[in-house]
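Hey team,

Filing this mostly as a record. A colleague (T.K.) asked me to run one chain through the structure pipeline before their review meeting, and I want the input and output archived in the tracker in case anyone asks later how it was produced. No errors, nothing strange. Just documentation.

Input sequence:
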Amino acid sequence: MMKEQRMHLKSYFGFSKIPFTKYMWASKMFNAKAQQEFIQGLHLWLETRGIALLYGPPGVGKSISLRRFKNDLDERRFDVFYLFNLRITPTGFLRSLSRILGLPVLYHQADLFDAISAFLAQYEERTGKHPIIIFDDGDGLSDKLLELLRLLANFAMDSEDRFSFILSGSQRLALRIREPQNEALMQRIVFSHSLRGFTIDDARKYIHFHLERAEGPKELFVDNAIQLIFHLAKGIPRVMNQLALQAIIRAAVHRTQTIDENFLKQHVLNNSIFDNKLGDT
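Output structure:
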């Protein structure tokens, strides 16, 4: 049933692929100004190394920006390890970290910590590459896990930064790191960046970017519809995708080739999870 619907959307609008879906290679992501500034900042941070913090609202593009940064790195100089789903115990965290580093998964927390610390401390000397660990979805990091990260940093970063790591999460993570019990970790953060949502100019370019990639009609969305989508989504790409895809589906159902503000209000906002947003417009 889903396949038939997608084929209908593609044939109705002449799409070569469905736009505004989550399936996007990082190398082909839309380059908004906010993402460009963040990625450039990370490359400059690598000249100093250490700890970086990225935070922003859900759906703003943190994960895909980190993947883009990873893809941009020189593989001859850096190795990147990626860990997410961090709502676990300290021992579980160290075991997950051991797995992605290719280490034996030991039983005791102290043994895990010692093995990881020694591995990271010797990694660059042994391989010629600087190790970077990305901790994505860091809102799940408890104070105990944050303290564990600080201890790892103390062990391998006192005289020189033998490895680097990036913490990524929402504003909630940034606020927790600023709490008194995490002050020692906060003082070690070399680079901190708040990833913003799109500007209205970004939003226009983003809509047109997806339509162009899908080889669809360039004027499918009238400018007042784009402005409404931007306003409702507060510039958050994931929410813009939701609204735009809802609008495309409704447009196909109602056999229309143009999506304007009135169409959005009548057929999308009043017939979906977005109906409570209509009063904000």
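Quick notes for T.K.: The beta strands are 51-55, 78-83, 130-135, 164-169, 189-194. DSSP finds twelve helices and five strands in the chain.
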